[in-house]
Amino acid sequence: MGVFSIFSKEKKENLDRGLDKTRQSVFAKISKAVVGKSKVDDEVLDNLEEVLVTSDVGVETTLKIIERIQNRVAKDKYLNTNELNRILKEEIADLLQENNTSESFDYGSDSLPKPYVIMVVGVNGVGKTTTIGKLAYQFKKAGKSVLLGAADTFRAAAVDQLKIWAERADVPMVTQGMGADPASVAFDTLKSAQAGNADVVIIDTAGRLHNRVNLMNELSKIRNVMQKVIPEAPHEILLILDASTGQNAVEQVKQFTAATDVNALALTKLDGTAKGGVVIGISDQFKIPVKYIGIGETIEDLQIFNRFEFVDSLFSAG
């Protein structure tokens, strides 16, 4: 299968399982769209457009996909509907190619800055703390020393939750407790990372409501304070999104990118939703790579996003 077979068998099976709800939903809609049709005609394309929009791909991205398929149909007047899934895979993967540079990311790479600083942002309830724990585990599994910073100091439960995940991943954590200045926690974490020669630092931040600009400004304060310790920090500002919220996740990207320089995205809870198509829309609409996807609840269930395998899994039967 060429470029569509670059994952390990285990990771591919996990991805297929994680996308099962979305795949079943998409396939049911596509099957209905082509019923009674032997070739891809205007009616099939109209139906396919509706399928993609109602699968949370988004209107703008859907129109791009339809245009690409129309161009294919123009070259081959008798394009068979049985080939539609293959064409969808190819055209969507090509569409996503420009921005998803994260496919070559390696948790154990020696080329990462040291310490490699990740600031994690996102609204409450999207799986932010869980993703931090899974990231810490993946970096440690790859041989990196990891330090967590508990800069979400507005909720008592936030520090406790991060502590649980730090213990699961078996990594240390810097905390000043509830009510502490988040920027101060970030500062201390980076100082501790330097002193301990840590490879990776992951800073948690409060789950801001994305329409509260005054609270968003604090993200800038945290960044500025970290840069007093490490001028290039943070190397990665990772926005966590809940895929099950569909197009609301798109709005969160807009708001957070307006507030801070987000340069990586993670979409969580893909295993529990039929709205996995939102990954395609977000990947296409924003000049920010989707870097990680969450496809389950265990500490192992975080994958580096790969457009080829994602699209292949989404549009492959069985």
What topology, given as strand order, has the largest sheet? 3-2-4-1-5-6-7-8
Main sheet characteristics? 8 strands, mixed
Task: Tell me the Rg in angstroms.
Answer: 21 Å
Query: How large is the share of residues in beta strands?
Result: 5-15%
Overview of this structure, please?
This protein is α/β, with parallel strands linked by helices. It has 12 helices and 8 strands. The chain has an 8-stranded mixed beta sheet with strand order 3-2-4-1-5-6-7-8, with helices on both faces. Helix 7 links the parallel strand 2 and strand 3. The N terminus is likely disordered.
How would you describe this structure in keywords?
49% helix; alpha/beta; 318 residues
Topology:
Layout: H1 9-18, H2 20-34, H3 42-54, H4 59-75, H5 84-96, E1 116-121, H6 128-141, E2 146-151, H7 156-169, E3 173-174, H8 182-196, E4 200-205, H9 213-229, E5 236-242, H10 247-259, E6 264-268, H11 278-285, E7 290-294, E8 302-304, H12 307-314
Helix pairs in contact: 2-3, 3-4, 4-5, 4-11, 5-12, 6-7, 8-9
Short synopsis of the structure:
With 318 residues, this protein is an alpha/beta fold. The chain is built from twelve helices and eight strands. The two termini are 16 Å apart.
